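Section handout 9: paired folding examples.
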Amino acid sequence: MYLILYSYHFSLSLPRKFWWIMTSNAQTFTLEKKRAAWLSLIVGAGMLIAKMGAYLLTGSTAIFSDAIESVVHVAATTMALVSIYVSSKPADESHLYGHGNIEYFSAGVEGFLIVLAAVTIIYTSVHGLIYGVTTKQLDLGTTIIGAAGLINLFLGFYLIKKGNKTNSLTLVADGKHVLTDSYTSIGVVIGLVLVLVTDFFILDPIIAILVAVNILFTGYKLMRESVGGLMNETDKNILNKIVAMLNNTKREFWIDIHHLRFLKSGERVFVDFHIILPYYFSIKQSHLEEQYIESELMKIFPNSGVRLHADYCSNDICKYCSYQTCSERKSERTIFFDWDSKRMLGEPIYKEMQ
């Protein structure tokens, strides 16, 4: 995997060791994502077989709803696996920002499949309420579903943990889906235990409907996140991390940062902004500041791309400048401001203060 750096005026040459470390980390993350996705697919297929067997054994509408959820899980995980392989491909001439956005598409399709499964469950359950349900061997079926629910509970937390570690929306979405599957199974088990205790068999389709409503909500959230990503909706979490990094590493002669923009594509984050530096700084000094900012940013976004534009100051900007030891200062600083997200996203400070 390649690390892509962008610059308005020039490209930087980072130390070979640093390049090797960043590339190695990216390859490790990709390998972890692939392994997690394969594990999810294999376990999902096993759960599907077990749940369908439990449904054929019992004829329970609630167990059928859980089995349908596993059908969606296998289909969605297959797509997730494909998207992880595609998103790990390096940028090329036809995809200058890489192939990471396929993960948003994958999450959206997974959300749609979840909603489709919920509608199917509701239809089947209503049919059971109208025409009645007949179940058998619920005790064995309940045991199978309970075991499947516990396995999926551990798998879901594992996938979310790996997704957060590798910055993979696909794994996080898959993990949330698996957790939903687990909660569904647990809910079904509780309901079936009530049926076994009370012999009130009409509870079976009612439980299935409650399960469907729950997974409808999960499907909607996945589709909402997918649309937001494809529309480049501002991720407040990423924005706050970038702003915090710039504040923590800010040097005295950084006069202002503005026009901050970023784009997340899969695991990659592409950042660009303008920075005002003293007008007498040499090209080499500007290069060093750019390299310093890039290295600090890559500590929180290892597989990132950065593009900076250096603006130069003028005598009119002295009143905004905190560089007190400046040899060319014409006046004292009289205007103070916070380096928050609103400031960095906006216009240059001298324009905003007019």
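Moving on to protein 2 of 2.
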Amino acid sequence: MSVSITETVVGTGSATSSLSTTDLRTIVEEALEDVRPGERVLAIIPDKTRDDNTHLLFPMAAQFLARRNVAQFDALVAQGTHGPMTHAQKFAKIGSGALDLPGLGRIFDHRWDNSNELVTLGQFSSTQVNELTGGLINEAVDVRLNALLTPGLYDTVLVFGATMPHEVAGFAGGAKYFFPGVAGPELTHMTHWLGALATIEQVIGRVETPTRRMIEAAAAFVPAEVISFTSVNTRDVEGLKTHALFAGEINETLRAAALVSAEVHIKYTGRKYARVLALLDEHYDELWVGGKASYKLGSVIEEGGELIIYAPHLNNISATHGRLIEKYGYAPLETVREMVEYSDELRANLCVAAHLAHVSYGSTLNKDGLLTPRYRITLASAVSEEVCRRVKLGFLDYRKVRRDDYENDPNTLVVENAGRDLYLVEPNVR
């Protein structure tokens, strides 16, 4: 399916397209035509947990802006609550070394938990939150972002990123690069918890979600002109392929790209499996992001079945939130809601509460009438057995995993690069 373009969006692509460097440069330069000489420009870029084509697009933008004689061009990493990248990782992300980056100033880390590096741009009243969330949440919240987005600091903000199905917003990309990408703790916690309350089955792989409504309304507080570059990518043995790139108005580029992503990144199995062996994508080096294996495969696992996450490279639950995850453990949403009700600590860290429920995915009643996770999750990684038991996951020595044993079982689905694509039994009724 080819996507039609509006007056506020330039670009092209489809599930079967493979855009060339020339195609990408043409789209980038057309989108930047209205940037004036002397402007101050800030680029918001993905962090290392995202596999996308920023290393191609960013140099194209830098070169065009240098010819346009902008006064300033800096970058801010949309790392959310993730830890900072190294200097080398940052420059690899933006294509340094392979291509020239004229005029680039500083690359800033985002400190989501440092009030001195945040600015309040507005507030949603409890009534507004209630309306945006469809009644799921009813409390006021401040709209706080990285202080680099303070009015008057930059004239134009560029947002680089890719889209694919996402457990909190429905699809990644767009306004999500502001919230939680460069947001303060208030909306970071609220939007994650909102995604959990809306339930993962009703969110992932859908564009119009309560979280999408909230983050797009919050992004309207950004005072600068925003130009978004939203791509749809896949990776195989031949490398990264760009199926589509749309640039321009941030909400419309997301929707155009999501139409293509739905064809590229959603797979239909036609049945459920008793067991899924998820060979976790190596971009996910801790379970905070590696939980995507459960988010994107849970729909095709039978009740009482098992998900094995095979990830020898994964050696951490979460560098940022590990203590809380180990204290409370993964559990169904109903259980997590009870824990939140009685724990000030979890209420202050709702993004952790949401993660606990999202990884657990769903619930069922066991033979004793007790609420339990709908399927078991076993971690075959560098995380110790002690930690696995503490967070209520099974443990399997990854050195004993033999892929052939699973591929020969008709009741087992083996998934390469797990966490990238969403697997459903059949298309959602939207």
